[in-house]
Write a structure and sequence with these properties.
Radius of gyration: 19 Å
Structural class: alpha/beta
Number of domains: 1
Helix content: 40-55%
């Protein structure tokens, strides 16, 4: 695999800090965060035939190749999830990995358009509610979900919204998202459902400015009135958009390794987050689909450190992620106390 741009050696002390610091994450997909071995186990349990004869062959297929291959593997993974209990199994693996990176709170995307015909909604919502409770009781991790509309299945948009509204009543779902291929499916196709979601009091976010350029981000901002932008790094191609984002402080959910793997960022160049931060844009750091992109949340911070970001800058990005979450002011204040205690302890060393 091609080596990603690095130009700054980092000390063991900085690496240790980045591993140990309490973290928030607001852009990670449950299905995409499920590793190859877990998907294989689900396939065996549900008698789903994968295009691999052995786990070793499947592990090799799981390694990222290109965007189309990524989508194929992602869809195969979702097809292996066939019962509500499968999600409980996935939660356990996901939460153990989040705990390993000291993630204290996460907002997790769900590929809802693929779920609606496969699971009884009430049963799935119950499992998600139990997952949130389990996350807090076993790992002391706060967790909420944002179901996504798949862009290439726009006819599913109102069914996804109905699903979200049911889950909100159970304290599980907090907003509406939009993911999938940007090409051919501009934000304007989803203006109606986003307007209704806002009317219903839901948070709204959208992937934009990843594969398609600044016009995709503008559409998510002006047509969907998205409160955060998933990725959004192509904003660097439009000075007016950079100025607008800096002025409004609308957060970008930046996922560096994902951008490199999907060739949104050339391997031999520093990530666009450097230009975004220098322009005053509000950036957060996230892992997107970590096993599919051979990454994890700590590795995202380590990569930025290797591209010259200082500890203070990385700590600010981590704080940005917490503040950009959809937690209440009171909940943020509780986590902020933990963040401050860690920062003070580090300052005394």
């Amino acid at each position: 695999m091609t080596k990603i741009y690095e130009n700054t050696p980092i000390s063991p002390e900085l690496s240790k800090r980045l591993w140990e610091m309490p973290k928030a994450e607001i852009h990670v997909h449950l299905e995409g965060a499920t590793d190859a071995a877990t998907v294989w186990e689900l396939a065996q349990r549900n008698k789903v035939t994968l295009p691999a004869a052995t786990l070793e062959e499947w592990l090799s297929m799981y390694a990222f190749r290109d965007f189309d291959h990524f989508l194929d593997i992602y869809l195969l993974a979702t097809q292996c999830m066939q019962t509500a209990d499968d999600f409980a199994f996935m939660f356990e693996r996901f939460l153990a990995e989040q705990a390993r990176h000291n993630v204290r709170y996460c907002e997790v995307f769900l590929s809802a358009s693929f779920m609606l015909d496969n699971f009884p909604q009430e049963e799935v919502i119950t499992v998600f509610a139990e997952g949130i409770k389990h996350a807090k009781e076993k790992y002391d991790i706060g967790m909420r979900f944002i179901p996504d509309i798949a862009r290439h299945i726009p006819e599913s948009r109102y069914r996804v919204l109905d699903f979200i509204l049911k889950g909100r009543e159970a304290g599980v779902f907090i907003g509406l998202g939009l993911g999938g291929p940007e090409v051919g499916f501009p934000p304007g196709l989803f203006m109606d459902v986003y307007e209704e979601a806002r009317r219903q009091g839901l948070h709204v976010v959208a992937h934009a400015g990843e594969v398609v350029g600044p016009e995709s981000v503008w559409g998510a901002l002006t047509e969907l009135k998205s409160e955060r932008i998933g990725h959004g790094v192509r904003a660097v191609d439009d000075p007016k958009l950079l100025e607008y984002l800096a002025e409004t402080q609308i957060p970008l959910e930046v996922c560096p390794h994902s951008n490199y793997r999907l060739k949104v960022t050339p391997f031999n160049e520093p990530h666009q987050i450097r230009k975004l931060v220098d322009a005053g844009v509000y950036c957060t750091v996230n892992s997107d689909d970590p096993p599919m992109f051979s990454t994890d949340l700590t590795s995202e911070y380590l990569l930025l450190a290797k591209q010259g970001f200082s500890w203070d800058e990385l700590w600010q990005l981590n704080g940005n992620t917490l503040e950009a979450s959809f937690l209440s002011d009171e909940e943020k204040a509780t986590y902020r106390t933990e963040w401050d205690a860690f920062d003070m302890n580090e300052a005394e060393k």
